[in-house]
Sequence to fold (482 residues):
Amino acid sequence: MSEIKFYSGEQVPLEMHKVRMVQRVYLLPVEERAQRIQIAGYNTFLLQNKDIFLDMLTDSGVNAMSENQYASMLQADDSYAGSETYYRLEAVLKDMFGMEYFLPAHQGRACEHILARLLVKPDSVAVMNYHFTTSKAHIYAMGGTVEEIIIDEGLHINSDLPFKGNMDISKLEEAIARLGKEKISFIRIEAGTNLIGGQPVSMENMRQASKICRRAGIPLVFDASLLSDNLYFIKVREAEYKDTDVIEITREIGSLMDVIYFSARKLGAARGGGILTSDRGMFLQMREMIPLYEGFLTYGGMSVREMEAMSIGLRESLDMDIINQTPIFVEVLCNELIKKGIPVVTPPGGLGCHVDARQFCSHLSQDEYPAGALAAALYLAAGVRGMERGTLSEQRNPDGTEAVSKMELVRLAFPKRVFTLSQVKYVADRLTWLYENRSLIGGLEFEDEPKVLRFFFGRLKPKGNWPNALIRKFREDFGESL
Ligand SMILES: *Cc1c(COP(=O)(O)O)cnc(C)c1O
Fold:
C-alpha cells in the first residue's frame, strides 16, 4: 500500500517514533507455558501477564503513551468541580468533531449505558452495521434488541473490498420501512468494526446513512472507539479524501452524526470515555445521568491525569504518522502469514491481525472451539496471547445448544506503537510452525461454564492430550530453545 513508510524498496514498515521507556518481558520455556495455560483453563483471559511474552489480547488501555501525554499528566488540575483539565479536554473534543456538547464517562461501555437509558425502550430495535459485545449487552439490558445490517461481504473472510465495515444502505431503508420510526431506538455505526476484523466504514457510507436517518427522524449514533484506524483508511482508501486533512475528515464525520461516543482506552490512548452531541434536548437528558452513574460533570469517573493524557492523545490521533502505525503493522503481519498460506481476514483492517481458525483447524468442528484451541496452542508455541473471537465468545441458545458463531477468529491485537518489527516476525514464524503442525491441535471442552460472558471466566480442558504432542514436536524441531 502506497502509504506504508518503507525502506530499501521492500514492504518494511518504518516506526515513526523512538522508544524511551521499556518493560522487560519474559519468555518461559514451552513446558512452563504448557503448565500456565493448563492452570488458566486453556482460556487466554485467565493467563497472568507475567507469564506472557507478547500480549496481543487487546488494544484496550494498553497503548503506548507519548512523552507529551506523560508530561501533561503532571499538569492535571486536581479539582472535583470545574477542573481546568476538563475544560481543556472539552475544547479539544468540540474542536475535533465540531459538536456543541460534551459529557465525560469512565469508559466506552459507560457511554453505552447512558445512551441505552436515553434511547432504548422495551421491544425497540437498534439497527447497526455490526454489534460490539458491550453495546449489545446494554441495549438488551434495557429490553431492546439489535439488528445487524452489515454488507454481505463484511462476513466473508476474504475480500478485496476496502470498506467491509459498511452498512448495507438498502437493508437500512428496508429496516426503517418494515419497523417504522417508533420501533427503532437508534441507528448505530461502529467505526473500525471490531468483531469482524477491524474493518473500516467509508465516509460515503456514513453520508448515505446520515441522509436517511435525518429524513426519517431517527438518531444516528457513532461509536468512535476505533476511529483512528478508520480515519487512516478513509485517507488512503477513499480517493476523494486523499488530500483532505485528518481533522477535516473528523469534522465531516461530526457533521453527519447526532451522537458520537468513544472509549478513550482506545481512541486517545489513555483511559476513559465520552459522549458528544449537538442536540440540546438529548444533552440535557444525558447530563442528568452523569452525576448519578459516572461522577460530577467535570470528571465523569475519570482521573484528571488520564483526562490530560487523553486531550494530548486525541490531538495526536489526527497525525497520519501516528495513526498509520497500527494499520501498517497489521498489514505486514497479515502479508507474512498469507505468504505461508495461513488463512487471515482480508483486506487487513485496523486493530489487529485476525486468523481464521475455522480454516486453520479445519479438522475441528465449531463446537470444539477451534479459535479457543488455536489461541491456547499459540500461547503454548510462542508465549503470545491472542483473543478468541468465535463460538466460545457467544452465549448458548436458550435450549442449551451451541450458538455457532458466524466467524471463528483468533485476534492478534496491536496495541498502538507497542511492538517492534522483529517481534512481529517472531509471531509470524511461530504461527507458521503451528500451521505446519496444525493436525496436532485438538479441540477444547468446558470444565466450568459460566452462564453469562463465559469467554471471560470459563475454564476448559483439551479433548485428548494434544498439548503434550505439541510440546514433543516443539522440542524435536526447536531443540533447547525456548
Ligand atoms: C472497546 C470498545 C467499546 C467499549 O469500551 P470500554 O472502554 O472497553 O468499555 C465499545 N465499542 C467498541 C467498538 C470498542 O472497541
